[in-house]
Structures are given as C-alpha cells and as structure tokens.
C-alpha cells in the first residue's frame, strides 16, 4: 500500500457509495412509473460491489514483502528498531498498483421481481381487466438503502479526514 493507500481505498468507496445513492434515488423517483421505453413498469435496480485487489490481508502483506510470508531482519525498507520489524519490502509502493481493500461497482442489475398489480381502470396504462402494473419498490427499503449509502459515505469521508490529519501532524513534526 502506498502513502495514499487510505485515500485510495476510501476514495473508491466514496465513488461506489455515490453510485449506490444515485441508483436508490432513481428507484425512489420511479416508484410509480408505469411506462418505460422498454415497455412495462420501471424495474428496481441494485448495485453490485466487488472488492478490488482481492485477497486477504496476509496475501496483501506477502505481496508487499515481495512474495515472502515473514518479515526478515536487516535488509530492505528501513530498520525500525534493532531486531524488530525490518526489511523485505520490495514492491512498488508508489505506483498506481491496485490498492488492496478498495471497492468498485461492477454492475447495476435490474430486479426480476414481478410488478405489483393495482386496480385503477381510469389509469391510461390500465389493462383490459382494469389493473395497472406498478414497480415493486418499497419506499422503506429504499430509505434504508439510502441511509446505508449515506452512512458508508460518511465513514469513508471520515477516514480521509483522519488520513489528512495524520499527514498534517507528520508535516508539523518535520518543521
């Protein structure tokens, strides 16, 4: 992980949660849409997230250590203290390597649930039997999803703020 690793990870989450909030907003906006260009009522959409870089923390650490699974003494990045954590860091820590732990949106999929049927013979989209097909969108479910996206966005923004504070504290120490 490079020096901006926290910002990379949290930035990817901010982007993903923004997409999630947009999809939820679209679902809420179209909760009563009975006519779409594809025909039929609007269908609820879901966001599919996927972890970037994959792997476990141990695999990520092993990759950063150049394939080794333990931290050897005496060589490499910097001896922190005698006999302690040292050496072995050999990967490119500053380039645009995929940051382990990030998230990306791999797709937005349509819900395959059946539309809700309501009797309203005066509606222009009513069938011969007087029923209108409405999207199967529950406003409470959408609000819970929106709150989840908002909370996750806030948590990741807080992580970026904390990282900024760490950078500022480090710069103050160097003055």
Give a quick summary of the entry.
The protein is α+β, with helices and mostly antiparallel strands and 175 residues long. Helix content is 39%, strand content 13%. The strands form two sheets. Strands 1-2 form a two-stranded antiparallel sheet. Strands 3-4 form a two-stranded antiparallel ribbon.
Total number of strands: 4
- Average of the residue pLDDT scores: 81
Low-confidence segments, ≥5 residues, pLDDT <50?
71-96
* Spatial sequence of strands, sheet with the most strands: 1-2
Strand content: 5-15%
Task: Briefly note the structural class of the backbone.
Answer: alpha+beta
- Into which percent range does the helicity of residues fall? 25-40%
From the alpha carbons, calculate the radius of gyration and give it in angstroms. Answer: 25 Å
SS element count, helices: 3
Distance between the termini: 26 Å
Largest sheet: 2 strands, antiparallel
Task: Give the helices and strands as they follow along the chain.
Answer: HEHEEEH
Shape call: elongated
Characterize the structure shown.
With 175 residues, this protein is α+β, with helices and mostly antiparallel strands. It has a domain at 3-31 and 45-69 and 100-110 and 137-174. It is 39% helix and 13% strand. Helix 1 (5-29) packs antiparallel against helix 3 (139-174). It is elongated, with a radius of gyration of 25 Å.
Features:
175 residues, two-stranded antiparallel sheet, 13% strand, flagellum, Flag_bb_rod_N, Flagellar basal-body rod protein FlgC, FlgC, cilium
């Amino acid at each position: 992980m490079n020096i901006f690793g926290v910002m990379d990870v949290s930035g990817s989450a901010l982007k993903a949660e923004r997409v999630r909030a947009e999809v939820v907003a679209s679902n809420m906006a179209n909760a009563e849409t009975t006519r779409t260009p594809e025909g039929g009522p609007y269908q609820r959409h879901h966001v599919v997230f996927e972890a970037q870089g994959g792997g476990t923390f141990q695999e990520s650490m092993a990759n950063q250590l150049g394939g080794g699974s333990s931290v050897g003494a005496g060589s490499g990045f910097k001896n922190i203290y005698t006999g302690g954590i040292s050496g072995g860091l050999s990967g490119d820590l500053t380039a645009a390597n995929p940051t382990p732990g990030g998230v990306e949106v791999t797709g937005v999929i349509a819900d395959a649930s059946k539309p809700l049927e309501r009797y309203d013979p005066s509606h222009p989209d009513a069938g011969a039997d007087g029923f209108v097909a409405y999207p199967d969108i529950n406003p409470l479910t959408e609000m819970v999803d929106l709150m989840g996206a908002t909370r996750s966005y806030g948590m990741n923004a807080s992580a970026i703020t904390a990282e900024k504070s760490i950078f500022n504290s480090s710069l103050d120490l160097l003055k």
